[in-house]
Amino acid sequence: DILGLRALETINGALVNAGHKPDTWDWMPWDDKRACGLLSSGMTDGIFQFEGYATRIGGKEMKVRKTMDAIIALALYRPALMNGGQKDMYLANRGEKKANRPYKLHPFFDPRLDVTAGVAVFQEQVMEMCADLEMPFAVWNDLLTAVKASNDKIDQYGQGIMKRTRPIFLDLCAAKGIDKKSALEAWETILGFTDYGFNRAHATSYGLMSYRSAYLKVYYPLEYMQSLLATWAGTKKEVMYMREARRMGIAIGKADVNASGVVWAIDTSKKSPTLRKGLTTIPGIGSTVAQSIVDHRPEGGWDSMDDFVAAVPARPVSGGKEWLKTGFLNGVMATLRDQGALASLGI
After folding, report:
1. Between residues 25 and 268, which one has the greater pLDDT?
2. Rounded distance, CA 51 to CA 76, Å?
3. Of 13, 203, 246, 248, which one has the greatest count of Cβ atoms within 10 A?
4. Which tens digits make up the pLDDT trace of 190-239?
5. SS (H, E, C) 140-184
6. CA angle, residues 227, 232, 236, in degrees to nearest 5
7. pTM given for the model
8. Is residue 277 within 8 Å of 320, Cβ to Cβ?
9. DSSP 25
């Protein structure tokens, strides 16, 4: 998640530097059809939270049409709501008039659930249901502890809390005129949230981030993919994002001492801009070597290997002395050669 946030910050900075928009999110329209269409397409490599298997499927099943759909999807496609059946209930209820919903709790709970098609989707909703029953604060607070407990802690104390709370909940339902069958159905909904559900703020912050990712990928594909690749360089995801960029029709240029930056960059030297591998994508080439090459590169690049060797310092860019003596390369120079990074110099 931290790397995902960093990628978005990098993208925003790239857009600002390119003169696109100010560095706030105020310019971005909500519920953009193309952005939402991407979230529902399943082609979501590189989209915050939506590239995972469950949420990728979730976007397609939800048929995301607006930002709120993305927020709800990130809450629905979690263990608690998938295992508890709420995900399927929501999909069945969605789009139906209230009277025609196949799944519904007692009408007493409607004020808390109508916003999500009669199904509890967020932690706050189940806690509000209990608050409306006038559950004593101490009991309510214990229940909140169980609902918020992570999976590794729920077995330690959460089940005990739920066992103690159940009869209290049923008595409170009876006091409000709710029949036992309906009370038990409501309790099962609450019980399901002990398997880790999202709170509304968490789902909203993630959903907004997902929507923004989709919007940027649709409208600024070069900047978006460049930022992703720069952020995830050297990891398994780098290969996945290279494949995704090619699927999107973006050409990828090899690392080259005359064209590459330190990290992934947009290369505008050709008629059609491409993504150019950074020098640090070459195994064995660190940031110090890459930065030294970039810092000493003249406008328009070098014309020959001799010019290159003469310009860059022997430390840290080793191997040039051997070239001048024998015409052979070793050290860093050999590494650059082996990866094709000297091709523009005829090597």
Report:
1. 268
2. 15
3. 203
4. 988 877 788 899 999 999 999 999 999 999 999 999 999 999 988 889 99
5. HHHHHHHHHCCHHHHHHHHHHHHHHHHHHHHHHHHHCCCCHHHHH
6. 140
7. 0.84
8. no
9. S
